Amino acid sequence: MSRILLLVEQKENRRLLLEWLAVYYEILLPNSKENIDDFLGLNQSFDLGIIDGQALKNHWQWVAAKKQAEHPLCLPFLLITSRSDVKMATQFIWQTIDDLIIAPVEKIELQARVEILLRSRQLSLTLKLSHDQLDRTLQTAQELNEMKTSLLYMIAHDVRNPLNFILGTTQVLTKYKSTLTDEKTQEMLDKTQAAAKSIDRLLDDVLLLGKTESGKMAFCLLPLDLTKLCDELVAEFQNSLKLKPQTEPVTLVFVNHSQSAMACLEESLLRCILSNLLSNAIKYSPPNTQVVFELKVTEVEVIFSVQDAGIGIPLADQERLFDSFYRATNVGIIPGTGLGLSIVKKCVDLHGGEIVLSSEEGVGSTFTVRLPIAKIEE
């Protein structure tokens, strides 16, 4: 159960927050005169701090020190403030606060913000576990510390953007919901859902990497309708493309050479393989180009290929492209963690298959995946 520290001086807010949150979380509640370090003790930690303006003014140095001590883990703090006190609070916000909520507090909005901040905390804990695993397996590598710092920076960048978008749209919908058209409201909800899914995919990638590295990845072959699965993935990515600016967009084209294709494969790993390849192809493609996704099934194997007309991969980078955290030298400012292709390779290897890259810098790339299949009777 997640632990929440309540540093709230206003008695009524303190009572309501305790009443609302104690149902779902363990609440740590020091009294206003108690030293916080004495209250928490040596080993007692928490996952989220909720603080009001007066408490922030009194304890902002402690909050800043606590966050610094937890680095690189995320220890989020949520500020409850009145609209008139926001200006006063800004002198502390940049060092200590991750989000704020305007009083009077709505219960639903509070729960949403708490869950988002706790998700950030959980993601950072998951990343920490993954890094600990890397420390054990790569402890002799000289560049390990640089790699960890770089990974945390990239992860923070990839998570912060969709989180900020979700928080922004939540505020807009709350404030202007009566004046928004149904179409605009649905558009904002669709974009919010897409942002949440991007965080989910990142978390899934990190968790999957940890499982494959530790040898704890479950592997279960089941009959799959490959045509249906590919159609679902294509529809999902096409819907995501519709949410982006429509000036010279990237177009996703699906070519199915096998109208009825049943095979026994591991569905979750297969989805991970295809989602990462399609996502990369779209991300690294310039406007007004096509990404071509092909499916072909033979008697002994299934063949997937993803072709783009994007930036391509320099020859010098291609040998290390499937290494964890490695990114090509020509990606520029395009965000990424360097996990996707590493995970793809591990998922392909678990199937006993192979992945082949054909690429030329400035021209484009084609990834071809061949997976051996067992017939349903077998």
Average predicted local confidence, pLDDT: 81
Largest sheet: 5 strands, parallel
Helix content: 40-55%
Q: Which structural class fits the helix and strand makeup?
A: alpha/beta
SSE sequence, one letter per element: EHEHEHEHEHHHEHEEHEEHHEE
Basic shape: elongated
CATH H-level superfamily of the largest domain: Histidine kinase-like ATPase, C-terminal domain
CATH level-two architecture of the largest domain: 2-Layer Sandwich
Q: Count the strands?
A: 12
Q: So what's the CATH class of the largest domain?
A: Alpha Beta
Radius of gyration: 24 Å
How much of the sequence lies in strands comes to 15-25%
Our count of domains comes out at 3
**What is the first-to-last residue Cα distance?**
44 Å
- Widest sheet, order of strands: 2-1-3-4-5
Q: How many DSSP helices?
A: 11
Low-confidence stretches: none
The CATH topology annotation of the largest domain reads as: Heat Shock Protein 90
